[in-house]
Design brief:
Layout: H1 3-6, E1 17-22, E2 33-38, E3 46-55, H2 58-65, E4 81-89, E5 101-104, E6 107-108, H3 114-117, E7 128-129, E8 141-145, E9 149-151, H4 158-163, H5 165-178, E10 186-189, H6 195-206, E11 210-215, H7 220-226, E12 231-234, H8 240-247, E13 253-258, H9 262-270, E14 272-280, H10 293-298, E15 302-305, H11 311-322, E16 330-335, H12 339-348, E17 354-358
The protein binds zinc ion.
């Protein structure tokens, strides 16, 4: 997995280096170190991409802190959402050439197992995410499979290109793939200012649903409305449960878009209309919740888990972004060397949309 040691300069024998942000031990943002590492070199089927933009995700922080679900070897380079320019191609690569503008698929799958063969490649037995299973984009260059690179339209800036894959794929798989959101249904999107939340508002509007959204600051209300939210609730100022019941005349919502965990779990379940679906992709406020089973069966509720999304869904989402139907919002672009400040900013929640690193 340590390509920068294994493959370094296999062709020339001369060490060439790049700048990267890595960590040598798990811990807080202070373990991030801006340093030089050997350049990657492409093997058969590989490309080396000069990173122009790498978006941050909460996953980066979980991996830095060290959680059992993502076993990595140290030192490690994070970053799953990468856009850039193909610089070198390995043996046998035909579809991509040096100079191509590309964005990389964040999900890595084997293509051969039972789940991959039926198209559920996000359930692959060896599923991994770029920046955890392999080195990521907090660097000037990154190694990838040529087949993981999607060509970018000339008019899409690199920062917006890097901002969309993980969050829009996740939101699409949750609302379209899992919850089967229908036109005219009502959906509650938690934390509409977060990366995945701002994607969910747009995906839900694309499905012609009515979108109720929560945010944690008044300044985020007009921004969420601009993305298409029909009603926006500042959950710090007013209890969102009361407001959602008022806005739905006591009926509740058809779908709850959940990624927070215990902090909103019980309210979210109570807000589901009969036959409602709660779809979840995360647990930022903790891993464990309580569940009253009588409530689940008597109201015929569905609880749906969701992990990333399939490659076919990524291709669909990418076309919608390339056409301007879905618009990733970039809050701030930080220089690569300020990765620590960028992660601290993300953890502060004082963000609307995505934070991006630019080498
Ligand atoms: Zn597989």
């Amino acid at each position: 997995a340590k390509w920068w040691l294994k493959h370094a300069n296999a062709q020339t024998g001369q060490p060439t280096t790049m700048n990267a942000v890595l960590f040598r031990r798990h811990g807080g943002p202070d373990v991030l170190e801006y340093t030089e590492v050997p350049d990657p070199s492409p093997g058969p089927g590989d490309i080396v991409v000069r990173v122009k933009a790498c978006a941050l995700n909460h996953l980066d922080c979980w991996i830095r802190q060290g959680i059992p679900a993502y076993r990595i070897s140290l030192p490690h380079i994070s970053g799953c959402d990468v856009a850039g320019i193909v610089e070198r191609v390995g043996e046998g690569v035909t579809g991509r050439r040096a100079g191509d503008r590309v964005v990389l698929a964040p999900g890595l799958s084997c293509g051969r197992c039972e789940w991959c063969r039926r198209g559920d490649d996000n359930l692959c037995v060896s599923y991994g995410i770029r920046g955890s299973a392999v080195a990521g984009g907090y660097a000037e260059r990154i190694l990838a499979k040529a087949s993981d690179a999607l060509p970018l339209p000339a008019d899409l800036p690199f920062d917006e290109a890097a901002a969309f894959p993980l969050v829009f794929l996740t939101a699409w798989h949750m609302l379209v793939g899992r919850a089967k959101l229908q036109a005219g249904e009502t959906v509650l999107v938690h934390a509409a200012g977060s990366g995945v939340g701002h994607a969910a508002v747009q995906v839900a509007k694309h499905c012609k649903a009515r979108v109720l959204a929560t945010v944690g600051a008044d300044a985020k209300i007009p921004k969420a409305e601009t993305l298409g939210a029909d009603a926006v609730i500042n959950y710090r100022r007013e209890p969102f449960e009361e407001q959602v019941l008022r806005l739905t005349e006591g009926r509740g919502v058809d779908v709850v878009f959940e990624h927070i965990g215990p902090q909103v779990w019980e309210s979210s379940l109570r807000l589901l209309a009969k036959g409602g679906r709660l779809v979840t992709c995360g647990a930022t406020s903790g891993p464990s919740v309580t569940l009253d089973l009588r409530y689940v069966f008597s109201r015929q509720l569905s609880l749906l888990g969701s992990l990333m999304g399939t490659r076919a869904e990524l291709d669909t989402v990418a076309q919608l972004v390339f056409r301007g139907t879905l618009r990733p919002v970039v809050d701030t672009v930080f220089p690569l060397r300020e990765a620590r400040a960028a992660q601290e900013r993300m953890l502060s929640r004082d963000v609307f949309g995505k934070l991006v690193l630019a080498p």
